[in-house]
């Protein structure tokens, strides 16, 4: 599943392949005019296993710190790292920097274990991934906060900020360690773990329909025609050419059909998730308006041909010569136990092996084709993603193991009934992930903000003159809540 939750400081700093990821790389940092004055990374000695007092092993976790706005005795803001490499650009622009400036706060960014350069183990073998979980990541954050307080003699309250999967972690950090963090901004973070996230494509469908009622129908027609072509050898040859496949299509394997269709629909999903306000950061000039103009343009070709044209444009933007849709190759890339990211998109848009492991063992969140009525076919059900878990990590990584992990996640954190204070849950109405998040106030102390017409993590980015009023209001209200948390903590 894609979240992120997370383009480098300048768009040219990111590899083109990352442009295709949604919830499998951290949210892209803001663009800066000058990257020269960004602070150097530092390293924190972290416990390998927080749950085993007899295990003395440690490792080095990467973090960044800025004292630019800090006033002695002031608060401390920490941006939580997610499912990929972190970037210190947030120390200079966006919500973290703006709120730090407003409240005279120190700023920290802590990279998540097993991602980026924060590598607890020599490789990513199954036996070494046993220490990869949200539970260990939260304990890392707790240990880091205690360590920084001691090292720098910090006495002010801490506030956590996170977007996408780190948005989930931000809320859970306040739940688990309320004595260490005064409050949390949980942006675009799902909290309800379940295997089948069929609602994702429902939100995508709604976004297309809101743009143009014919747009969704055109996409559905294209997928129907595509599915028919996967059923015979002449069609396989046509698909290989039309969609610029790296390898001749082989429809004998159901997994290849699922991979192809899921990957092509993924092109549309990415645009929807990073639609409108996020275009400048992740979507370039793309939005649902452009997608629907293409899909509805019959003079330029059939629905299927326009679907292929969107794929060609996506490949061009990613500087890719061909589309890799071979299931066996995807599995082979995910079975690579080095810390290198795969070279092409993986089903579910997971950006790397560790983030494939976490949904297989903790969350599910598989963006399946199980919508009522199957508007986009039924070729990639939950079973397809679970089979990939087994093929990558071994047979015991099956649906039973996933359900056990999901039960633990929901029991530990409370799912949509999370009982917490001093957390603001922020979502965009266009972001499919809001379907698994808190979008209604839990209480006065745990409000939800659903920003109409915005996409994934919009409130974390620098302000823009084009921001809708709802986004401006949300940023202001979040800032006010942070002030309340800081004041409440100081007055204890």
Which key features would you list for this structure?
492 residues, alpha/beta, two-stranded parallel ribbon, 15 helices, disordered N terminus
Radius of gyration from the alpha-carbon trace, in angstroms: 22 Å
Number of strands: 10
Number of separate helices: 15
Helix share, percent? 25-40%
Structural class: alpha/beta
Q: Which spans have pLDDT < 50 for at least 5 consecutive residues?
A: 1-21
**Helix-strand string:** EEEHEHEHEEHHHHHHHHHEHHEEH
Q: Biggest sheet, open or closed, and with what strands and sense?
A: 8 strands, mixed
Strand order of the largest sheet: 1-2-4-3-5-6-9-10
Strand content: 5-15%
Blueprint of the fold:
Layout: E1 42-47, E2 58-66, E3 76-80, H1 95-103, E4 106-110, H2 134-152, E5 158-163, H3 165-176, E6 183-187, E7 194-196, H4 199-211, H5 213-229, H6 233-242, H7 254-273, H8 279-283, H9 288-295, H10 303-317, H11 327-334, H12 353-363, E8 364-366, H13 382-393, H14 399-413, E9 423-428, E10 448-451, H15 469-490
Parallel strand pairs: 3-4, 3-5, 5-6, 6-9, 7-8, 9-10
Antiparallel strand pairs: 1-2, 2-4
